[in-house]
Amino acid sequence: MIQIESLYKSFDGNEVFRGISLEIPKGLILALIGRSGCGKSVLLKHVAGLIKPERGRVVVEGKEMGTARGRALRALRGRLGFLFQGGALFDSMNLFENVSFPLREKTRLSHQLIQARVLRELENVGLSGSEYKYPSQISGGMVKRAALARALVGDPEIMLFDEPTTGLDPVTGQSIIELIDSCHQRLHFTGIIVTHEISRVSPIVDRIAMLHEGVIWAEGTPSEFFASQDPVVRGFLGDAAKDMS
Amino acid sequence: MFDIIKRFGASTIEYVRKMGVMGLFLLKAVLFMMIPPLKFGRFLKQIRFIGLQSVVVILLTGAFSGMVLGFQGFYSLSRFGSDAFLGPMVGLALIKELGPVISALMVTGRAGSAIAAEIGIMRMSEQIDALELMGLNPYRYLVVPNFLAAMISLPLLTAIFDVVGIFGGYLIGGKLLGVGAGTYFGEMAAYVEMEDIMEGIYKSFSFGLIIAWVCCFKGYYAGAFSGFGSEGVSRATTQAVVLSSVLILVWDYFMTSILF
If you measure CA to CA, which chain B residue comes closest to A82? Predict the structure, then answer.
């Protein structure tokens, strides 16, 4: 479960969050939408504990991210998976080394077990046969898939996706969404997906929240959201539909 | 007028803050160096990169520095009829000053810049964030191995530089200009003390720390302190080389004048 309570944050005097409150129950996925630069990725990094709030709290699985330090923070992060917008794969390692890295460093599993698990995870994301390729040798879609495999290999309880389909063609983007859905069916993680592509993501999410002017402007199930008469929501949905077409 | 004072004050505070962050970075690096576990594979990799792969450049610069010293030393000393002291002059100059300083400057240019660029790119492409989000400590993976490797490699590289330089000096002074091998090496053995050698080792050890500190710091905080994107990485790399080189020379002066 993720709870965000009255979160405030500003950068160089520019107020990004003005009291954000949001709750994502265990096992559900929330899509976080909003215009570019409204702070969606910043909110995701607050949840991951990469950015500290000025005021307010982010509570993940009963533990406050903002006040956790050192080993406690690392233990908490060990329960998270994060899919970065650019993948953030280690560019000096091949895909096998990338995906096996968290297991090699954080567990005492044998080499054989790690190998079996990594190969299975790469197979799950459709990257069998590409184990020994380097991130610079593969396409953007494959980078996202490999990054997803790395994020999921530790069986996280919480998954955070930062623009998982941005920069991908519609077919590859759709395959990534389907992949996230199948992983969710398998692992039942609690998730947040930051995205612009609301219509593509809505079939796999339980709730949608819209970030606007530093607050959660609207929140609801996908059907409630699409039925909303709020002019800001309607405006965003209209723009998003235009972008998609 | 008030605006100028305000801006000056703000930039001073920012400068002091950066120095504080840099100091804390060193403190954390030293702390994690002392607390196991050490990422041994990464440490060996950095020893290879900073130490082994710098040997050729150290051999070249060491040889030519010694040869230049041989020439200059012989012509200066022969004016006073003291060319027999060429050996001690070359030996002391190399062991106490030139060996540690030139080796450190060479390592800064060859390995320090690469360390800053590598860590800077990892910062920009969120690879360091990814490490943190795996619940791993980036200091252990990126900083500590570089610190240890630089502090071990620098004294060894300096020793190679000194030996090659001394033979370079002999090549010119002895073989070309006629100072006998017995005079060159015999006088050197008489005048070069163990504490001179230790002075060079202490210096090179501390230069290793400076190189690792500045270059890792500049890479680690690329983005926050040096701008974003490829331009930010390039600025961080330049700053790392310039600041390391300046600090090496300043610290060398203080070590020489105060400690020895």
Answer: B133
Is residue B61 included in any domain, yes or no? yes
Which residues span the domain enclosing B131? 39-259
CB contact under 8 Å between A77 and B126, yes or no, is no
What interface predicted TM-score (ipTM) does this complex get? 0.86
A47 interfaces chain B, CB cutoff of 8 Å:
no
pLDDT by residue for chain B (260 residues), tens digit each? 788 998 899 899 989 999 999 999 999 999 999 998 889 999 999 999 999 999 999 999 999 999 999 999 999 999 988 888 999 999 999 999 999 999 999 999 999 999 999 999 999 999 999 999 888 899 999 999 999 999 999 999 999 999 999 999 999 998 999 888 999 999 999 999 999 999 999 999 999 999 999 999 999 999 878 778 889 999 999 999 999 999 999 999 999 998 66
Which residues from chain B sit within 8 angstroms of residue A77, using beta carbons? 132-135
Query: Token pair for residue A181?
Result: 């859905």
Domains: count for chain B? 1
Domain A1-79+159-245 CATH superfamily: P-loop containing nucleotide triphosphate hydrolases (3.40.50.300)
Q: Give Dmax over CA atoms of chain B in angstroms.
A: 72
* In B47-107, alpha helices (H): 55-79, 86-92, 99-107
Backbone angles phi, psi at A128, to 5 degrees: -60, 135
Q: Is A124 helix (H, G, I), strand (E, B) or coil?
A: helix
Segment (H or E) for A78: none
CA distance A228 to chain B (A): 36
